[in-house]
Structures are given as C-alpha cells and as structure tokens.
Design goal:
Layout (H helix, E strand, L loop, with lengths): L6 H15 L1 H14 L1 H7 L5 E2 H6 L8 H13 L3 E4 L8 E4 L15 H7 L2 H4 L5 H7 L3 H6 L3 H7 L1 H25 L9 E5 L5 H9 L4 E6 L1 H4 L8 E5 L11 E5 L7 H14 L6 E5 L2 E2 L8 H14 L6 E2 H10 L23 E5 L7 H14 L6 E6 L1 E2 L8 H14 L6 E2 H10 L4 E5 L6 E6 L2
Helix pairs in contact: 6-11, 10-11, 11-12
C-alpha cells in the first residue's frame, strides 16, 4: 500500500507538472529574445540598463507591440535572464543584462544564440512529437518526421545546413575556450592533427591559432566542407569517416561519437587507429560523460542531450565512463608498447615469457580450461615461463570480506556461461596439474580476486 501523501506534497507535485507542461514556452520566449536581439540592444547602450521604450525603438519593426514585449520581458526577468529596476520616482523601468543574457549576444565568442535558433526551430522540434511512436515501433524520430535521416536532410536543404553548421560552430567556439585552457599541454607534442567531423573548421582553427606548429586537417562530409571558409594553416578535406580518415599524429573528435551507435563508433575508432602512428599516435575525444548520480552544473544537460541523440540520430547516445571504457576497448586503441593480435586461445596463443589471464578461466568448463592452459604451456619457455591467472579462489567456509561474493559469482557463472564456474584452491590445483603446470602459488590481495602464478616446471 502506498504511503498517504500530504496535501502540501500533492500541491507541490501539481505545480511541478504545470512547470514541465509549459517548459516549451520558456524555450520559445528565449528564442524570441534572440530573434528580437534584446540582449544586443541593451549591450549596444554600453551594457547599461535601458527602458522598454528604448528596447522597442531598436527592434526591427515599424510598430512593435509594447504590451506583448512587456509580458515577454516580465517572464525573462522572472527567469533571471534579464534584470529590472523600478525607479523610486515612478519613472520607466530599466532592463539590464545578467550573466545569463550575455550568452545571447550575436557575434560574441561565448554566444549560444545560433544554437538556440537551431534547437528551437520547427524542423528540430517536430521529431519530439514522435517519441511515443518510436517507443511503440522503434525507428528514428527525425526520419519518421522528415522522411530522411538528419545528415541526408542537411545535405539536401542548404538553409537548414547553414543553420545547423552555425549552431555547431558556436558550440565549438565555447568548447574550444575550455579545451585551450584545460588541455593546452596536450597539443604541444603533436606535429599533425585531423579534426574528424570538424564542421566548417571553427575548432581546429582555434587549435592552430594557439599551436601554429601543427599541420591541421579539417575532415567532414563534402556538403559541409563546401561551406567551410579558408583558414590559415588548415586544409579542408571532404570524405567519409566510415571509409577512411586522413593520416595524422593525432585524431581529434568533438561531439562526434554521441551521434552514433556503439557498432558505428567502433568502426570509427578502428579507422582512427589506422590513421595514427602505431607507437605514439593518439585520439582526443571531446564528448559528454554521463554522471547518473551527479549533481554538477551540466549533469542534467547531459541527459537532455541523450534524449536529443535518440530523437535525431541512428543509435546515437551519451555514455557513462563505463560505457566509454567498453567502447574504447572494442575500438582497439593504441597503447605504447602494446600489440593487438586477433586469434583463438583454443587454437594457439602467441609466444611470450609470461602470459596473463584475468577473469578468463571462470567463463569455461574444466575441459575447456585444460585446453587453454595447455596452449599457454606451449607459448612460454619450458624452464622460465609462467602464467599469471587473476581469478576468484573460493573459500566455502571462509568469513572474509569477499568470500560470500565469490559464491554469488559462481551462481552467475552457472547462469550465464556454458559450465563456467569459480573454483576452490583444490580445484585450481587439479586444473593446473592437468593443464601442465605442476607448480603454482596463490597470492591473496585485499580484493575479490587473487593472483595464481603457475610455473611450467
């Protein structure tokens, strides 16, 4: 039975629903302020507060409706986007800028005005009406609404393409400031860089401006590159990142991966890997990292962006750190001193002085583990080789911190694998002997896993 709610809680809940219901009006009023250039008008008066009459006189209209403007300003003041001062002598109210409205200035390096116009355009808003349909039927909301996917639509509609590029460019300028401050040392050792999905080149232009020694390439779809301006030190190249990426010391990708599914991201990452040097190449990814329980300034925005990715892209999404880790591992990034080799451990294992198996053997039956161990035995030197196995060692009657969890993991192996299991020390001893390792030692750690060192002699 649900606990009875107080009348105050119910009223508060009702008020919040009303706020959610009409939150679209907040966005539309914000868009209106950008279209009327209200922040720019106040800013043009040296940023000093001005009257409503002064604002109206600068609006591009022969006869602006003052009552309309009054009510729009009232809501914008309520939202702290502008300030209002009512003179004690009864004179006209004075409206001023705030730390929020400064982000609405056109032509400013820290303006979000083009992004506001893009995200609140009817073409971008319409797909949101298909959310319920997508839940029931699947598919991409943008495609259901406009008959084609976002990138195809942009390539066929120059006006929308320009608006989209302007929105991305303003976001790039803002992010570039943060990157140039927080990652300024990351570009020093790079001789060449390719900005994949770099749009019209705003981001890479900022990088080259701060690091003129870098030979830079701006890489994007041909219809995007067609509108890119000439930038000193930057070569614009049209192409498809799913086919091939230009070679460089480093690959840079800003808010690209969130547009694509995991499978597509892995394809992109593998092409990145081909494009950079094997030993000292790197990929720089600038994207959201979702914090599900976070309370940072941008944590809520991350979840809103995730919804927009669902609506506008084919499988795109924002990801948590754990999801990023999995994606990068599947994309086979380059690590200094590490070679990636594909193969089958049941058939053959590459030769080495030592082998590491972390959480591998618990996935397999005893028979399969013996096959793996015998291949390990063949891969290492007969006298000095060893295998380091990182696994759970069960203590059925133990009362250690992780002993009970080990038994739970054993149940999970039983449910999810083909005869995989966790093992006791006695079972490990039997398995290792049959696999060709008569000598071993177990190294306990203050963790769930132990290290089992197995020696060939």
């Amino acid at each position: 039975m649900e606990p009875e709610q107080t009348s105050e809680e119910l009223v508060r809940g009702q008020a919040e629903i009303w706020q959610h219901m009409f939150s679209y009006a907040d966005s539309m009023v914000l868009k209106c302020a950008v279209e009327l250039r209200i922040a720019d008008i106040i800013h043009s008066h040296d940023g000093a507060p001005i009257t409503l009459s002064q604002i109206a006189s600068c609006i591009d209209s022969p006869s602006p409706d003052i009552p309309y403007l009054t009510r729009i300003m009232r809501l914008l003041v309520r939202k702290n986007i502008f300030t209002v001062h009512h003179p004690s002598d009864g004179g006209e109210s004075l409206y001023g800028l705030t730390h929020i409205s400064k982000w609405l200035l056109h032509g400013s390096d820290i303006s979000l005005a083009p992004m506001i116009l893009l995200q609140n355009h009817p073409l971008m808003m319409a797909p949101l009406h298909c959310l319920c349909k997508c839940v029931k039927e699947g598919g991409i909301a943008f495609e259901k609404t406009h008959g084609r996917q976002l990138w195809d639509f942009a390539s066929q509609n120059p006006e929308f393409n320009n608006m989209f590029n302007d929105g991305m460019a303003c976001a790039a300028r803002i992010v570039s400031r943060a990157i140039m401050t927080g990652y300024k040392d990351g570009f020093g050792c790079i001789g060449s860089l390719v900005d994949v999905g770099g749009g019209t080149g705003t981001m890479v232009a900022e990088i080259v401006k701060s690091h003129p020694h870098i030979k830079a390439t701006n890489f994007d779809l041909p219809h995007v590159i067609a509108t890119a301006p000439l930038i000193d030190g930057v070569c614009h190249v049209g192409g498809d990142m799913f086919q091939d990426i230009p070679n460089a010391d480093a690959v840079f990708m800003k808010t690209i991966m969130h547009d694509w599914s995991d499978e597509d991201c892995v394809k992109i990452l593998r092409n990145c890997r081909k494009a950079i040097p094997e030993k000292n190449g790197k990929v720089i990814i600038v994207d959201f990292v979702l914090q599900p329980d976070g309370n940072g300034k941008f944590d809520d925005v991350g979840f809103t962006f995730d919804l927009m990715m669902m609506v506008n892209t084919s499988g795109g999404e924002e990801r948590t750190e754990l999801r990023w880790k999995k994606l990068l591992e599947e994309g086979a990034p380059v690590y200094d001193g590490v070679s990636h080799i594909a193969g089958d451990m049941f058939h053959q294992i590459p030769n080495a002085d030592a082998l590491l198996l972390k959480w591998i053997l618990h996935d397999w039956s005893d028979e399969d583990c013996i096959k793996i161990l015998r291949n390990c035995r063949k891969a290492i030197p007969a006298k000095s080789g060893k295998v380091a196995i990182v696994e759970i060692v069960l203590h059925p009657d133990g009362n250690g911190t992780f002993d009970e969890i080990g038994l739970v993991f054993d149940s999970v192996m039983m449910a999810h694998t083909s005869r995989g299991k966790e093992r006791t020390q006695l079972q490990w001893k039997k398995l290792l002997e049959e696999g060709g390792f008569p000598r071993y030692k177990i190294i306990s750690m203050p963790a769930l896993l132990s290290i089992i060192e197995a020696y060939s002699e």
